[in-house]
Amino acid sequence: MEGAGNGEQRKGLWTVEEDIILMDYVKVHGKGKWNRAAKFTGLKRDGKSCRLRWMNYLSPSVKRGAFSEEEDDLIIRLHKLLGNRWSLIAGRIPGRTDNQVKNHWNIHLSKKLGVKGKYKVSDSSSEFSKKPEADFSIKSSSNDRSIPSNKTEAELQNVLEGSHEKAKEITSTQEPILTSDFYDPYLYAPSLMELLDESLDFLWHDF
DNA sequence: AAATCACGCAACCGCAGTGAT
DNA sequence: TATCACTGCGGTTGCGTGATT
């Protein structure tokens, strides 16, 4: 891979200078091709590191600061439904990354809920507690936000498909909340979040 | 004031999936 | 069709910092 012949790779925390270099690169070339970004900028970081730094920290869509009660509540409920599918959960919480959600869960929420064992989600605690054999067959167009398959799959699909249409309606009449570059109507329409939240409610009573 | 501990966050690692050639 | 590069994800680790002793 890249970097193999590149002598020493820097590790650890990013410096301000590195951040600026990476941000400048993204400004000009856009996201993606992170390995090339690493080469092009001369950063002694590999592509994965550049990507992670951007996604988790530099991206303007990343919300900093403490999690709100609403976010906590949403995470708890989505985790109940989806298990440790952090990217999926984060995808439903505007401005939060999977890393943030994961950390927040492990540090705060798992304690709060008395979940035993770091990262462990008991098999029974999550309806969709992952495994490859499960049919995560429904894919959204833009990303791997697949939806677990089980008896509620169709319902969930309806929720999300309906949400998609509603999102278009909602977002077509309002300004994007965040920069267009990262704008995802699935995620950033507050009305949609409420809708999704309400729509999922019927799923919770089974748990 | 120094040492220790606990917590929180950022970053790394390994693997799997996907697309391009 | 096979291979490779790239991306994304979840789990884990390491470091910085504030609190406590």
Explain what this protein looks like in three dimensions.
There is one protein chain. The protein is mostly helical and 207 residues long. It folds into two domains: 16-58, Homeodomain-like (Arc Repressor Mutant, subunit A, Orthogonal Bundle), CATH 1.10.10; 69-204, Homeodomain-like (Arc Repressor Mutant, subunit A), CATH 1.10.10. The protein contains nine helices and no strands. It has helices at residues 16-29, 34-41, 47-58, 69-82, 86-90, 98-112, 153-172, 185-188, 190-204. Helix 1 packs across helix 2 (34-41). 23% of the residues are buried. Mean pLDDT is 64; it is low at 1-6, 117-195 and 201-207. The structure holds a DNA duplex (21 and 21 nucleotides).
CATH class of the largest domain: Mainly Alpha
Instruction: Give me the strand/helix succession.
Output: HHHHHHHHH
Number of domains: 2
Which segments are poorly predicted (pLDDT under 50) over 5 or more consecutive residues? 1-6, 117-195, 201-207
Strand segment count: 0
Helix content: 40-55%
First-to-last CA distance: 45 Å
Given helix and strand content, the structural type is: mainly alpha
Radius of gyration: 19 Å
**What's the CATH architecture of the largest domain?**
Orthogonal Bundle
Strand content: under 5%
Largest beta sheet, briefly? none
Mean pLDDT: 64
**CATH topology of the largest domain, what is it called?**
Arc Repressor Mutant, subunit A
User: How many helical stretches?
Assistant: 9
- Say which CATH homologous superfamily of the largest domain is assigned: Homeodomain-like
Overall morphology: elongated
